[in-house]
Amino acid sequence: ELALEILFCERHRSYLLWRYLQVEPNATIGEIKSMFHKNHPQWYPARQSIRLDPKGKSLKDEDVLQHLPVGTTATFYFRDLGSQISWVTVFLTEYTGPLVIYLMFYFRVPFIYAPKYDFTTSKHWVVHLACMCHSFHYMKRLLETLFVHRFSHGTMPLRNIFKNCTYYWGFAAWMAYYINHPLYTPPIYGEQQIRLALILFLFCQIGNFSIHIALRNLRPPGSKTRKIPYPTKNPFTWIFLLVSCPNYTYELGSWLGFTLMTQCLPVAFFTLVGFIQMTVWAKGKHRSYLKEFRDYPPLRSPILPFIL
Amino acid sequence: MAATPAPGTSKGAHSDVTGRRKKGPGALATAYLVIYNVVMTAGWLVIAVGLVRAYLARGSYHGLYYSIEKPLKFFQTGAVLEVTTCARSWTDASLCVFCLVSVSLQVQSEDSVLLFVTAWTVTEIIRYSFYTFSLLNHLPYLIKWARYTFFFVLYPMGVTGELLTIYAALPHAQKTGLYSVTLPNKYNFSFDYHSFLIIVMVSYIPLFPQLYFHMVRQRKKVLGHTEDYSKVE
C-alpha cells in the first residue's frame, strides 16, 4: 500500500491539501480523483488536474498509481481547472443559437427592420435558398453532436461557452441581418452564380459529413484511441490522401459556397475568420499526428492540399 | 526587417526583467532601431517645441493644433512603422486610437485635442528616448523612472482628451455620414462611423483600466529591481 499526499499548487506556493494513507497501488488516477472529490465536494473530478510536477502535464484518468514514478509516498500536485462544462452542452448551445437567430431575421421579427417590413418575406428566391442552406448546416451540426461525434475530452472550462456563443451567435446575427434585409442585392451573376454556389455548398456538406462518419468509425464506442485516418470506399474520403483534417477543408468549402450564394461581405468575413481558426486547429492536429505516428503519410498537408 | 527584439524595444521592456541577456539583434538591425527611435524622439520634441512657441506667440491655446498639425500627422504615420520594431504592448493600442482620431476628425480646434496631444507628446518623447538609450545600453535611471512614473498623470490626461475629442466629433460624423457605407450595395454590407465611434468610446471602459494597471504592475517590477539590475534589462 502507498501513502498519498495531494498538494495544492498555486504559482509558487504549495500546501498540503490532503493525505491518504493506504491507497491500493493499482488504483487509477480517476479513482483517486473520485476519492479527492468526496473530501472536497467543491472540486468534482472534471475540474481536477493532478500532476507529478507543479509545472508538468496533467496525468490521465487511466494512469495506474504503481506505473507512475512514485515511491512509497506519492506526492501529487493539484490544480483547479475552474468550473467545467461538457463539450456536448457547449456544442448544442452554440449551434442552436445561429439556427434560431437566423430564422428570426428571415421571418423579419419586429424591431429588426423598419416596422412596415415586419413579418414580410423577401422577394428574392436566393434569400429563401440561403435560409434553407444555413438552417440545414446547423441542423446537421446539432445532429452530429448528438449522434456522430465521439469526444476525447468530456469537459472544457465554463468561460468557453460565453466566448464561443458570442462568436457563433454574433456572426449569425450579423450575416442574417444583411441577407434578409429589405434592401438586399442578389448576386451579380444571378442564377449561374447561385447554382454553382449551391453545388459547392452541398458537395462540401456531404464531404464534411463523410469525414465525420469516417472519424467516428476509427474509434470504438467509449474509447479515446487515436488512429491514422485513411480513405474508405466513400469517394468523399479520398481527400485523406492529401489532407490531415479534411473536415475543415470541406467546412471552408461550404462557407465559400454560402458566400458566393449570398454575395454578402459579412459572410466573407465569417468564412475568413473561421478559416484562420480551422487552420490553427488543423496545424495542431497535423503536428500531433506526426509526433504520435512514425509512419504518418508524408504527402498530407494540414488543411489545403500541398498549400497549407 | 527580421530582427529579434532588442532589449528595451520589445516586450522585454514591459514584461519580465530577468537579467538574462537575450541574444541581441545584429549590428544592422540595431542601427535601424536606433535611428528609428532617435528620429521619433526628435520628431516629438519638434512637436513639443512647436506647441510651446505657438502658445507663447498667441498668448492662448486656441488654434494651437494647426501649428503642429503637419509634423504631428507625419510622425503618426511614422509611428505605423512601429510594427517593424516587433512591438509590443498595450500602449500602442492607445496610440492607434490617437492616430485614428486625430487624423480623421475635423475638430482640430477643440481644446480636448490639445489635451491628448500634449499628454501623448510628452509620453512619446520619454518612451522613444527610453528605447534609444536602451538600445545603446546606456539608460539613465531618470528616463526609466520618468517612463514608469509620468504615466500616472499622462495616461488619464490622454484618454480624457481622446474621449472628449471623439464625443465632440460625433455630430459632425453623423451629419456628413463620414466613412459610412449604406445599403443597398452589391456587397450587402453597411458601416456607420458614428455608431462605431460610440462603440470605441464604450470600449475604453474595460480597456483603459487594464492598460493602466498593467503599467502600475510593470512599474513595481521594473523600478523595484533597480538594485539587482543596474544595467538595462
Automatic annotation (TrEMBL), chain A:
Residues 22-80 form the TECR-like N-terminal domain. One of its GO terms (cellular component) is endoplasmic reticulum membrane. The chain crosses the membrane at residues 85-107, 166-184, 196-215, 236-258, 264-282. GO terms for molecular function: very-long-chain enoyl-CoA reductase activity. Its EC number is 1.3.1.93. Pathway: Lipid metabolism; fatty acid biosynthesis. InterPro entries: 3-oxo-5_a-steroid_4-DH_C, SRD5A/TECR, TECR-like_N, Ubiquitin-like_domsf. PROSITE patterns: S5A_REDUCTASE. This is Trans-2,3-enoyl-CoA reductase-like. One of its GO terms (biological process) is very long-chain fatty acid biosynthetic process. Keywords: Endoplasmic reticulum, Fatty acid biosynthesis, Fatty acid metabolism, Lipid biosynthesis, Lipid metabolism, Membrane, NADP, Oxidoreductase, Transmembrane, Transmembrane helix. It is an enzyme of class 1 (oxidoreductase). Belongs to the steroid 5-alpha reductase family. It comes from the Eukaryota. It is found in: Endoplasmic reticulum membrane. It is a multi-pass membrane protein. Residues 155-308 form the 3-oxo-5-alpha-steroid 4-dehydrogenase C-terminal domain. It comes from Gouania willdenowi. PANTHER family: 3-OXO-5-ALPHA-STEROID 4-DEHYDROGENASE, VERY-LONG-CHAIN ENOYL-COA REDUCTASE.
UniProtKB/TrEMBL annotation, chain B:
It is an enzyme of class 4 (lyase). Keywords: Endoplasmic reticulum, Fatty acid biosynthesis, Fatty acid metabolism, Lipid biosynthesis, Lipid metabolism, Lyase, Membrane, Transmembrane, Transmembrane helix. Its main location: endoplasmic reticulum. It catalyses: (3R)-hydroxyhexadecanoyl-CoA = (2E)-hexadecenoyl-CoA + H2O; a very-long-chain (3R)-3-hydroxyacyl-CoA = a very-long-chain (2E)-enoyl-CoA + H2O. The keyword ATP-binding does not apply. Pathway: Lipid metabolism; fatty acid biosynthesis. GO terms for biological process: fatty acid elongation; sphingolipid biosynthetic process; very long-chain fatty acid biosynthetic process. It comes from the Eukaryota. It is a multi-pass membrane protein. Pfam families: PTPLA. The chain crosses the membrane at residues 30-56, 148-170, 193-213. Catalyzes the third of the four reactions of the long-chain fatty acids elongation cycle. This endoplasmic reticulum-bound enzymatic process, allows the addition of two carbons to the chain of long- and very long-chain fatty acids/VLCFAs per cycle. This enzyme catalyzes the dehydration of the 3-hydroxyacyl-CoA intermediate into trans-2,3-enoyl-CoA, within each cycle of fatty acid elongation. Thereby, it participates to the production of VLCFAs of different chain lengths that are involved in multiple biological processes as precursors of membrane lipids and lipid mediators. This is Very-long-chain (3R)-3-hydroxyacyl-CoA dehydratase. It comes from Gouania willdenowi.
